Amino acid sequence: MINKNSLRSDSLVEVAYHQIKQDFSVRVVNPGEKIIIKDMVDRYGISETPIKQALNRLIAEGLVENIPRRGMRFKEANWEDIEEMLDTRLMLETFFAHRVIESVSLDNKIIDDMRENIKQHYKAIEKIETLDDFFEVYKIDHDFHLTYMKGMWNKKILQIYESIGSHSFSSFLYGKKPKEKLINGVLEHEDICNALENRDLKALEAAIKVHNDNAKEYISLMIKMKNI
């Protein structure tokens, strides 16, 4: 039971958000299961309002869906949705690649931030043991892509990019992606960073596509094997 008296309202939303996400990832609750807010109030010792706000965040991320007249439920892994999401990410990252290269030519901080992200990514993977460690790895992964997209200097497009929830599938993959696969993803980030640093548009577009295709291939395999 959480001591709600010691936490502010925004902190309670954060606690509820992480607790719900954790329960889903370790299958305390299951894909397709209907969400009963009263049960969550009892389980977490948090009032309805922060829980509803946390669920709204998870709806935006694609982990929860709200069905008219049927209420909320945890979303099941759906290959069509994940494929569309990754295709959209690929389209945006490659379409604006030339703009990001132009930004790097003016300010090398983007490269510095991406290199630092890669360094932190390796460290996070090496110490991964708990669910929180796992989420941290995927947060760092997501931050790499956001750093890249910030290089196009377009706030509206960045909002659209963030709204596609390009790493929302991570909660389905907990405990199923071995370290070597996670490390391969960081190596692909290095290829993206190297191409960007060399101002090589074709190499950048190719590296982005390889990274995206490998993510699609692995997730598709997991769904076919019914592991997510």
Strand and helix map with partners:
Elements: H1 9-25, H2 37-44, H3 48-61, E1 64-67, E2 71-74, H4 79-95, H5 97-106, H6 109-126, H7 131-150, H8 155-163, H9 179-197, H10 201-224
Antiparallel strand pairs: 1-2
Helix pairs in contact: 1-3, 4-10, 6-7, 6-9, 9-10
* Count of individual domains: 2
CATH topology of the largest domain: Four Helix Bundle (Hemerythrin (Met), subunit A)
Measured distance between first and last alpha carbons = 29 Å
Low-confidence stretches: 1-7
Q: CATH homologous superfamily of the largest domain - what is it? A: GntR ligand-binding domain-like
Counted by DSSP, the helix tally is 10
- Quote the beta fraction: under 5%
Kindly report the spatial arrangement of strands forming the biggest sheet.
Answer: 1-2
Q: What would you call the quaternary organization?
A: single chain
Main β-sheet description: 2 strands, antiparallel
Quickly name the level 1 CATH class of the largest domain: Mainly Alpha
- State the helical fraction: 55-70%
- Rough shape? globular
> How do the SSEs run, as a string of H and E?
HHHEEHHHHHHH
DSSP strand count: 2
Mean pLDDT level: 88
Output the radius of gyration: 19 Å
Global structural class: mainly alpha
Question: What is the architecture of the largest domain at the second tier of CATH?
Answer: Up-down Bundle
Description:
The protein is mainly alpha-helical. The chain folds into 2 domains: 4-74, Winged helix-like DNA-binding domain superfamily/Winged helix DNA-binding domain (Arc Repressor Mutant, subunit A), CATH 1.10.10; 79-224, GntR ligand-binding domain-like (Four Helix Bundle (Hemerythrin (Met), subunit A)), CATH 1.20.120.530. The protein has helices at residues 9-25, 37-44, 48-61, 79-95, 97-106, 109-126, 131-150, 155-163, 179-197, 201-224, and strands at 64-67, 71-74. It has a two-stranded antiparallel ribbon with strand order 1-2. The longest helix has 24 residues, at 201-224. The chain is globular, with a radius of gyration of 19 Å. Residues 1-7 have low confidence and may be disordered.
